[in-house]
Each structure stands twice: as C-alpha cells, then as structure tokens.
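FAQ

Q: What does a record look like?
A: Structure on top, sequence underneath. For example:
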C-alpha cells in the first residue's frame, strides 16, 4: 500500500464494524457503565495503535478493556492494566509521565508504539478466532508503517501468538513456533520478539508480574533496540 499511512490506518480502524458481536459488546458497555464512570462519554469504537511513528519498540496487547480503552479512546488508558504499564514505561524512559487517565492527559511516547491484536473490547477478554482474523491485518499494516521498528514486546500469550501470525502474514520467516513465557526471546527477520506477562490484575495482584519484572522486560527492549 504505497499510499498507506498511520493516519489513514487509524481512521480505518476507528470506523471498523466487521465483527457484529464486538460492535454490540463495546456499545453495550458504553450504554451501561459502572457507577464510577456514570455520565462519562465513551469512545465505544475500535482503537487504533498510538505512539512514536519512528518507534524502535512495539508493544502488543490483547484487546482494549471495556471500561478502559473502550471508554477513553486510547489503548492501555484508564484501567489498572494501563496504570501498571504506563508507570513502567515512564520508569524505563518510553513515556513522559507515569499516569495514563484519558486520551487528552498529555501522555507522549518516545521510541515506542502501542497496538493490540484485537481492536474492540471483547466479552470476557476472549475474542473469537474470526474476530482475530478480521483485526490482524491492522497489525500487519502497522508493522509495515513503522520503518525503525526492531523489537516487538507481546504482552501475554495471546499477543505473542498474534504477533507471530502478523509476522507470518508480512512474509517474515519463522523457522519454528517459539513458546511464550515471561522473558522468552525469538528472532524473526529484522525483529527481536521479547515476551512479557500481560499487566492484567490477574497477574499483578497475584505477584505473577511485578513492577521489577516488567521494568526488566522494557529495559531489555531498550537495550535490544539500541536505545541505550
């Protein structure tokens, strides 16, 4: 796509209605918010990636949260996962502030771009296979549109598998399917893939993922990308 761009892609993502189940769920969440968000205006559309267009590091999540990104209009913003991730990105030099509350909060990224395998909030955080297939071309196009990209950090096993599928669709050779794990590493063409557990409450509240572990993963990404 010679005329493709991040701006064009973002507009296409935000307008997508390919998955009826996800359209219904994201709009239902917006229409019936929990009490703490009552009266707030929800984004309630698919979420484009965001960040530095010259990023050398790409973070890949599973999907937006129903009352996080689906509300705020920016991935990993306005929920506990976003709080945990943003604090780590600030400590490791990728963003300018330690909090991520809404799309107009002044957060700016350096050397990192943030995307997801699925762009609408799915029920129970479990997209269907056809929903992933509908969304995956967006991630493939982002890979093409990030010319400086060298390191991919999938957050969780679902993102790991999605990133591998996007690389295959891009034509990048993968000699085998590397197993996911926190700290797992693999090479695919020009890219180094570094695995991290997802900063969900299920992981952070139980201590499966600590701030020190996520900081170490992001510091490893900086070093591998040649940023330090």
């Amino acid at each position: 796509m010679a005329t493709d761009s991040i701006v064009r892609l973002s507009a296409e993502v935000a307008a997508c209605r390919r998955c009826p189940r996800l359209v219904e769920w994201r709009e239902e969440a917006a229409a019936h918010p929990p009490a703490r968000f009552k009266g707030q205006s929800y984004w309630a559309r698919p979420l484009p990636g965001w960040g530095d267009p010259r990023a050398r590091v790409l973070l890949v999540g599973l999907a937006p949260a129903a009352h996080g990104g689906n509300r705020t209009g920016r991935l990993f913003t306005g929920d506990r996962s976003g709080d945990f991730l943003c604090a780590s990105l600030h400590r490791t030099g990728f963003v300018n502030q330690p909090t991520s509350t809404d799309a107009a909060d002044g957060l700016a990224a350096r050397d990192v771009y943030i995307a997801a395998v699925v762009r609408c909030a799915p029920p129970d955080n479990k997209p269907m296979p056809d929903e992933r297939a509908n969304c995956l071309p967006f991630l493939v196009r982002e890979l093409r549109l990030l010319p400086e990209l060298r390191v991919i950090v999938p957050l969780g096993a679902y993102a790991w598998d999605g990133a591998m599928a996007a690389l295959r669709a891009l034509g990048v050779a993968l000699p085998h399917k590397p197993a996911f794990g926190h700290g797992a590493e693999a090479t695919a063409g020009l890219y180094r893939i570094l695995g991290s557990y997802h900063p969900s409450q299920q992981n952070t509240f139980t201590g499966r993922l600590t701030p020190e572990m996520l900081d170490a993963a992001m510091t490893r990404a900086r070093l591998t990308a040649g940023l330090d």
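Q: Is there anything notable about this one?
A: Residues 129-145 form the longest helix (17 residues).
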